[in-house]
Write a structure and sequence with these properties.
Elements lengths: L8 E8 L5 H12 L3 E9 L5 H12 L3 H18 L1 H12 L5 E4 L5 H10 L3 E4 L7 H4 L6 E5 L7 E2 L2 H7 L4 E8 L8 E9 L5 H25 L14 E2 L4 H13 L1
Parallel strand pairs: 1-2, 1-4, 2-3, 4-5, 6-9
Antiparallel strand pairs: 5-7, 7-8
Helix pairs in contact: 2-3, 3-4
């Protein structure tokens, strides 16, 4: 079969937030390390940039719950560095090579941004932690835009679906690579996987799910390049559209797992 793209596939990444999430950083490095993929630009929607902006943003969205969430996030960074300092320092070095391609903008759908993306002549768009994308943006790349959703579809749509899978007593948590459309987590499935929940903590489940998701995402990109991707419509009844868990929801999950 003749590849759809007979050179390195040019991709542009869409994300959001006052800082880059750890998973986004790892994904960027994965793209850089793959010789058949060329990361031409990263567009991050945010009103302000930096760690203090991240603190303020979390406080605005989550209120008092922001304090334990921020502490857990900082603790996670410290623990990762203590457990694997060489890998974390290597990640930081490799990210420096991408910094010049990172564009922070207040509105990812602005006409100036759309014009920039046209100039980059990207083959494929990629979404990781981005705001909801509109057709004017996700249809710009020649092959459309893929997105990662850490949840099984259509059963688990919306936010923090790995948490809600644990909350609902599921045996596994899923991750889906889909081709983005105008719906919310309703795109055609390119790749999907799952991890066993078992006796793992929410953090452990998330780490395992994130790694599976990264591997599947790169596979999906290469399949799109080669013309071997099989896009499947979502089947079955739609589940709830989940939201961020409240403090009560978090305590309830921990209490249930402590009893078990």
């Amino acid at each position: 079969m003749t590849p759809i793209v007979d050179r390195s596939i040019r991709v542009v990444l869409f994300t959001s937030g006052p800082t880059l999430e750890y998973g986004v950083k790892r994904f960027m490095v994965c793209l850089e390390q793959e010789p058949e993929i060329e990361l031409v630009a990263v567009f991050c929607q945010t009103a302000r940039w930096g760690w203090w902006a991240a603190v303020q943003d979390r406080w605005r969205r989550r209120g008092l719950l922001a304090i334990p969430l921020l502490l857990a996030n900082a603790g996670g960074h410290l623990l990762r560095f203590l457990q694997r300092p060489r890998q974390e320092m290597s990640l930081s070095r490799q990210l420096k090579q991408v910094r010049g391609r990172l564009h922070t903008i207040p509105n990812i759908h602005a006409e100036t941004v759309l014009a920039q993306i046209k100039q980059f002549d990207a083959d494929l768009g990629l979404s990781y932690g981005s705001p909801i994308l509109k057709p004017a943006l996700f249809n710009l790349p020649r092959l459309g835009t893929l997105g990662i959703h850490h949840g099984k579809v259509p059963q688990y749509r919306g936010k923090k679906t790995a948490f809600w899978a644990m909350y609902n007593g599921e045996k596994t948590a899923g991750v889906t690579i889909q081709k983005i459309n105008a719906g919310l987590d309703t795109g055609e499935i390119v790749q999907e996987g799952e991890v066993i929940i078992g006796g793992r903590t929410p953090g452990q489940v998330w780490q395992a799910l994130e790694q599976v998701g990264l591997d599947l995402y790169v596979q999906a990109i290469l399949q799109m390049k080669a013309g071997t991707a099989v896009l499947r419509p979502q089947t079955g009844p739609k589940g709830n559209l989940y939201r961020d868990p409240s403090l009560r929801d978090i305590f309830t999950l921990w209490a249930r797992r402590a009893v078990r």
